[in-house]
Amino acid sequence: MPDTDIWLVDIIKKDGKYTCKNPLNITNKNGYDNQPSFSNDDKGIYFVSVKEPNQTEIFFYSIKNKTTTPLRQTRESEYSPTQTIDAKFITSVVVLADSSQQLFNYDVTNILAPEAISKNAINTDSVGYFTWLSKDTILYYKLTEPHSLRAWDLKTNKDAWICNNPTRAFKKIKNTQQFIYGIKDSTSVQFRIYNPTLKESKFFTSYPSLNEDFIWNNELGLIKSENADLLRYNEQTKTWDLLFSFSNLGIKKITRFNFDSKNKRLTFVSNL
Question: Mean per-residue pLDDT for 3-27?
Answer without folding.
Answer: 96
